[in-house]
C-alpha cells in the first residue's frame, strides 16, 4: 500500500519535472498527462471522506500548477476533475437519500445538477450506499466511490481525446465555398477544423509565417498535403492581404474568464487588422482551455518569453551585448477582438465565457 | 516610348540579368520541339483557358494572353501551380525547363481544375504576371547592366538609394553618349535611354522615386538648348542631375532631419520599422545633438532590413531594442513616438511603404501613439492607391535574404512551392491615411489629408 502511494507520488514527481523543464509541449498534451497522473493518484488514494480526497487532489494540483504556471490547461484539468468528483459525490449522496424514500423522480436529476451534465447523473444510481467516516471500515467509502470516480475521470479523458473531432463537427457550417481564410501559427485544432471542412467545401487558406517560431510553415505544409490550396505569407503582409480575407480562424493557448485569450504572438496583430477591416475572428479551442482566472495581462510576466537567439542570434556577434532583444511567446487578445469561440461544447461568444466557467468549474477551486 | 512610372505587378526574377542568350531556349520550344507530354499539356491548358474564359469573363484576359505565348506559360484557370511557374518560366537552363514542364504535366493530371479551386488562387494571380522580354544585350550600357544586376539581387534597396544609383548611372551613360549624325541630342537621347530604362525595369519594377526622377530628367533633356555643343549639353545635363540629387534628396533629408529631430524629446521611446535611410539620419542627428532617447527597431521577413539599421544605431551608441513584428503587441504600450519612412506618398494621404508598416501604424493608432512619416517631396505620386493589391512587388522565392534564424532547422521550413501551396512575399503595403498623424517633408510638417497640396507648396506641378 505504501508502494502504491509511492508509485503515484513518483508519477506526480515525474510530471512536475517534465512540466518544469517544458518537456510537455502543447496544452492538450499537458492536460492529458495531468488526467493520467490524477487517475493514478485517485486509484491509489486512501480516504474516508470526500474532503480528504478533494484536499489530496488539490495539493497534487497545486504542485503541478506551480511547476509550470503558464501552462493553464494543467490547472484547468485539475479543476474540472474536482468538479466532476464533487458532482459524482453529490449525486451519490442524494441518490442514496432518494433511494431511502421510495420516490425517485426525474425532477431530482433536473434540479440537482447543471443542465449540460446530464450524462453524469445516471451513473450513480440509487444502488450506492455511502457511509462516510465509518470507524469500522475506513476503506468502505473509498471502495464504493472509486469505480464511480474512475468513470468520471474516464469521461474527462474521453472528452480530451475527442476534442478535435467535436470541434470540427460543424466545420462545414462555419466555412463557405470560395472563402479565403487567414490563420497564423500551427494550431492542431484549427488544422483539423480546416481539414474536416475541406471535405465539404473548397476554400483557400492563407497562413502567416509567425516569426520567430515560423510554425506557419508546418501548418501550410499540413494543409496543402491535405489538398487545401494554401498561401504562405510573412507576417508583414497581414494587413496588406486582410482586405481580401473573409475570416480569420486562429487557435488559443488559454481562454480567460473575461472572454479574452492568450494566443501565439502575432494573434493580436491579426485580430486588430481583422477588426479594422470588419472581418470576423473565429477562435477554435477545446474546453479544457477555459481558465477561471481574470485578465492576468497587466503583469508583463503573463507572457512567456522564449529564447532570443531566434530573433537575434549569436551570428550577429557584436550586437549581442549592445542590444536588448524581446521574444514573447504569447499575446493577450481582448474579448472585444474575438467574435466567437468554437469549443467541443458548442459555439460561444466571448461575453458568455464567464457562464461557461461557472458551469464547468466550482468556485472553491479557482485558487488551488 | 517611355515606360510608365507605376507598373502593374511584376514577379521576381532573380537570375535574369538581362542576359538575352537565356531567352531563346523558351522561344525555341515551339510546338515541334515540345515533347508529347508538353503538347498534350498545352492543349489541355488551352482547352481549360477557353472553358474558363467562357465561365469567368474579363478576369481571364491576362491569363489567356499568357497562353498565347509560345513558351509554356500558365493560365491561372488551369492548375493552381501554374501562376507560380510562370514566375519561374525564364529558367536559366533547358533542363530545368524540362523538369518544370514534366512537373506541371504531372500536376495537370493529378489535380482536377475545378472552377472553385482555381478561383481562390486566381485572386492573387495578378501578382504573377510574366516579365516583358528584355532587349538585346548589345544596346545596354555596361553601367546599366551592372545596376540591373544589383537591383535584381537586392544589393541596392531602398527608394532613395535606388534613385541615386539610377541617376548616377545615367550620368555615366550620358557622358558616354554620342549624338548620331543628323540628330539632335534633345530628341535622340531620349530614345537612346528608353531601352536602358526598360532593362532596369525588367530587373526590378521601378520605384516611384526613380519614375519621378526619370520624368524630370526627360523634361530637362527635351528642354536642352539645341545650339549648345554636345559636350556642353551633356555637362549641363549632368549638372542638372547633380542638382536634382542635391536638392530633392540630400538637402531635403537635412531639412527633414532637423524638423523631425525637433519632435524628439528627452526620454522618448521611439519605434521604427525596417530600415529607412531618412529615419536613420533623423535618429543619428538627434543623438548627435545630445538628446536622450531609446529606439525600438521592429523587423520582419522577407527582408529583415532592420538588422542593418540596428547595427548602425548601436554603434552610434543609441540604446536599442530589437523585436520581430509579431511581438509588437507586447511593447507598443511603452512607445511614445513612431517614426517610419516611405517608398511613396499619394494624394489621398496614403503611404506606400515596406510591408508591415501598416501593421505598425495600426497598432500605434490603437494605443494613441503618434505616427510620423519622414518622406521627401520627390516621393509624391499623384495616383490614389486604395489597397496594397493595386501595386505591389513580390520578393523572389527562397531564402534570398538569409532571413530565417540560424537556430531553426532548414528542413522544417517550407521554401518551395508545392502542388497546393504557394509562397507569396509581398514587399510593400499601403498604410491608410487615418493611421498617420503627420508627414514630415522638406516643405513642412503636413497632415495626411493635405498631402495633395505638396505640388502647390513646391510651386510647380509634379
TrEMBL record, chain A:
Subunit structure as annotated in this protein's UniProt entry: Component of the translation initiation factor 2B (eIF2B) complex which is a heterodecamer of two sets of five different subunits: alpha, beta, gamma, delta and epsilon. Subunits alpha, beta and delta comprise a regulatory subcomplex and subunits epsilon and gamma comprise a catalytic subcomplex. Within the complex, the hexameric regulatory complex resides at the center, with the two heterodimeric catalytic subcomplexes bound on opposite sides.
Subcellular location: Cytoplasm, Cytosol
Family statement: Belongs to the eIF-2B alpha/beta/delta subunits family.
Keyword line: Cytoplasm, Initiation factor, Protein biosynthesis
UniProt cross-references to InterPro entries, sorted A to Z: eIF2B_beta_subunit (IPR051855), IF-2B-related (IPR000649), IF_2B-like_C (IPR042529), NagB/RpiA_transferase-like (IPR037171)
Name assigned to this protein: Translation initiation factor eIF2B subunit beta
Keyword Protein biosynthesis assigned: yes
Automatic annotation (TrEMBL), chain B:
InterPro entries: IF-2B-related, IF_2B-like_C, NagB/RpiA_transferase-like
Pfam families: IF-2B
Top-level taxon: Eukaryota
UniProt region (Disordered), positions on chain: 1-112
Comp. bias (Basic and acidic residues): 35-47
Protein keywords: Cytoplasm, Initiation factor, Protein biosynthesis
Statement: the UniProt record of this protein carries the keyword Protein biosynthesis: yes
Intracellular or extracellular location(s): Cytoplasm, Cytosol
Residue runs in coiled coils: none
Pro residues: compositionally biased ranges: 1-14
Key word Glycoprotein present: no
Annotated Low complexity bias: 65-81, 93-111
Bias (Polar residues): 23-34
Family: Belongs to the eIF-2B alpha/beta/delta subunits family.
Subunit details: Component of the translation initiation factor 2B (eIF2B) complex which is a heterodecamer of two sets of five different subunits: alpha, beta, gamma, delta and epsilon. Subunits alpha, beta and delta comprise a regulatory subcomplex and subunits epsilon and gamma comprise a catalytic subcomplex. Within the complex, the hexameric regulatory complex resides at the center, with the two heterodimeric catalytic subcomplexes bound on opposite sides.
Listed name of the protein: Translation initiation factor eIF2B subunit delta
Provenance organism: Somion occarium
Amino acid at each position: 500500500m505504501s508502494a502504491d502511494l509511492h508509485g503515484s507520488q513518483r508519477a506526480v514527481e515525474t510530471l512536475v519535472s517534465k512540466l518544469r523543464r517544458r518537456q510537455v509541449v502543447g496544452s492538450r498534451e499537458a492536460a492529458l498527462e495531468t488526467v493520467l497522473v490524477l487517475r493514478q493518484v485517485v486509484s491509489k488514494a486512501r480516504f474516508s471522506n470526500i474532503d480528504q480526497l478533494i484536499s489530496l487532489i488539490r495539493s497534487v494540483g497545486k504542485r503541478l500548477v506551480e511547476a509550470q504556471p503558464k501552462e493553464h490547461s494543467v490547472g484547468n484539468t485539475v479543476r474540472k476533475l474536482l468538479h466532476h468528483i464533487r458532482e459524482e459525490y453529490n449525486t451519490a449522496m442524494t441518490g442514496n437519500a432518494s433511494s431511502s424514500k421510495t420516490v425517485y423522480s426525474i425532477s431530482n436529476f433536473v434540479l440537482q445538477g447543471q443542465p449540460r451534465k446530464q450524462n453524469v447523473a445516471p451513473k450513480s444510481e440509487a444502488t450506492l450506499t455511502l457511509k462516510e467516516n465509518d470507524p469500522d471500515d475506513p476503506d468502505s467509502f473509498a471502495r464504493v466511490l472509486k469505480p464511480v470516480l474512475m468513470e468520471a475521470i474516464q469521461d474527462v479523458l474521453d472528452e480530451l481525446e475527442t476534442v478535435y473531432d467535436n470541434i470540427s463537427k460543424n466545420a462545414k457550417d462555419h466555412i463557405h465555398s470560395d472563402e479565403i481564410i487567414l490563420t497564423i501559427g500551427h494550431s492542431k485544432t484549427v488544422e483539423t477544423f480546416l481539414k474536416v471542412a475541406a471535405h465539404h467545401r473548397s476554400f483557400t487558406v492563407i497562413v502567416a509565417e509567425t516569426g520567430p517560431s515560423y510554425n506557419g510553415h508546418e501548418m501550410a505544409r499540413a494543409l496543402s498535403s491535405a489538398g487545401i490550396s494554401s498561401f504562405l505569407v510573412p507576417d508583414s503582409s497581414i494587413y496588406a492581404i486582410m482586405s481580401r480575407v473573409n475570416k480569420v480562424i486562429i487557435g488559443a493557448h488559454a481562454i480567460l474568464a473575461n472572454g479574452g485569450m492568450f494566443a501565439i504572438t502575432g494573434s493580436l496583430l491579426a485580430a486588430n487588422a481583422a477588426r479594422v477591416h470588419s472581418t470576423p475572428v473565429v477562435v477554435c479551442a477545446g474546453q479544457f482551455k477555459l481558465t477561471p482566472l481574470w485578465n492576468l495581462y497587466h503583469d508583463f510576466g503573463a507572457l512567456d518569453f522564449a529564447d532570443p537567439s531566434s530573433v537575434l542570434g549569436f551570428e550577429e556577434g557584436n550586437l549581442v551585448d549592445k542590444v536588448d532583444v524581446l521574444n514573447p511567446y504569447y499575446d493577450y487578445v481582448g474579448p472585444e477582438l474575438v467574435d466567437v469561440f468554437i469549443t467541443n461544447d458548442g459555439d460561444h461568444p466571448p461575453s458568455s465565457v464567464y457562464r461557461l466557467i461557472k458551469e464547468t468549474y466550482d468556485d472553491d477551486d479557482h485558487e488551488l | 516610348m517611355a515606360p510608365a512610372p507605376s507598373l502593374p505587378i511584376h514577379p521576381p526574377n532573380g537570375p535574369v540579368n538581362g542576359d538575352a542568350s537565356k531567352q531563346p531556349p523558351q522561344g525555341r520550344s515551339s510546338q515541334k520541339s515540345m515533347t508529347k507530354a508538353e503538347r498534350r499539356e498545352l492543349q489541355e491548358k488551352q482547352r481549360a483557358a477557353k472553358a474558363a474564359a467562357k465561365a469567368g469573363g474579363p478576369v481571364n484576359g491576362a491569363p489567356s494572353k499568357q497562353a498565347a505565348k509560345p513558351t509554356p506559360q500558365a493560365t491561372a484557370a488551369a492548375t493552381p501551380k501554374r501562376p507560380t511557374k510562370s514566375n519561374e518560366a525564364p529558367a536559366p537552363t533547358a533542363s530545368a525547363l524540362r523538369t518544370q514542364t514534366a512537373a506541371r504535366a504531372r500536376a495537370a493530371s493529378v489535380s482536377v481544375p475545378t472552377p472553385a479551386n482555381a478561383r481562390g488562387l486566381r485572386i492573387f494571380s495578378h501578382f504573377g504576371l510574366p516579365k516583358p522580354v528584355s532587349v538585346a544585350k548589345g544596346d545596354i550600357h555596361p553601367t546599366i547592366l551592372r545596376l540591373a544586376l544589383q537591383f535584381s539581387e537586392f544589393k541596392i534597396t531602398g527608394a532613395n538609394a535606388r534613385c541615386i544609383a539610377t541617376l548616377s548611372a545615367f550620368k555615366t551613360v550620358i557622358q558616354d553618349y554620342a549624338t548620331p549624325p543628323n540628330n539632335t541630342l534633345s530628341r535622340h537621347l531620349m530614345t537612346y535611354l528608353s531601352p536602358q530604362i526598360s532593362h532596369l525595369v525588367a530587373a526590378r519594377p521601378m520605384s516611384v522615386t526613380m519614375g519621378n526622377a526619370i520624368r524630370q530628367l526627360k523634361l530637362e533633356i527635351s528642354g536642352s538648348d539645341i545650339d549648345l555643343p554636345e559636350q556642353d549639353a551633356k555637362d549641363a545635363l549632368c549638372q542638372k542631375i547633380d542638382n536634382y540629387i542635391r536638392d530633392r534628396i540630400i538637402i531635403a533629408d537635412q531639412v527633414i532631419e532637423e524638423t523631425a529631430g525637433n519632435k524628439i524629446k528627452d526620454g522618448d521611446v521611439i519605434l521604427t520599422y525596417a530600415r529607412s535611410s531618412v529615419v536613420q539620419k533623423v535618429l543619428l542627428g538627434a543623438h548627435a545633438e545630445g538628446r536622450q532617447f531609446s529606439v525600438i527597431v521592429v523587423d520582419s521577413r522577407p527582408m529583415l532590413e532592420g538588422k542593418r539599421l540596428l547595427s548602425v544605431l548601436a554603434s552610434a551608441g543609441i540604446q536599442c531594442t530589437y523585436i520581430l513584428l509579431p511581438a509588437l503587441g507586447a511593447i507598443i504600450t511603452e512607445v511614445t513616438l513612431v517614426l517610419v519612412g516611405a517608398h511613396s506618398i499619394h494624394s489621398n494621404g496614403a503611404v506606400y511603404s515596406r510591408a508591415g508598416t501598416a501593421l505598425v501604424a495600426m497598432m500605434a493608432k490603437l494605443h494613441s501613439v503618434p505616427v510620423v512619416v519622414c518622406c521627401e517631396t520627390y516621393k509624391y505620386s499623384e495616383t490614389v492607391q486604395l489597397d496594397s493589391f493595386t501595386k505591389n512587388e513580390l520578393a523572389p522565392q527562397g531564402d534570398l535574404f538569409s532571413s530565417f534564424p540560424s537556430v531553426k532547422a532548414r528542413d522544417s521550413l517550407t521554401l518551395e512551392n508545392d502542388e497546393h501551396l504557394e509562397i507569396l512575399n509581398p514587399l510593400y503595403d499601403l498604410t491608410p491615411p487615418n493611421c498617420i498623424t503627420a508627414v514630415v517633408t522638406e516643405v513642412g510638417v503636413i497632415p495626411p489629408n493635405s498631402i495633395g497640396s505638396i505640388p502647390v507648396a513646391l510651386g510647380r506641378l509634379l
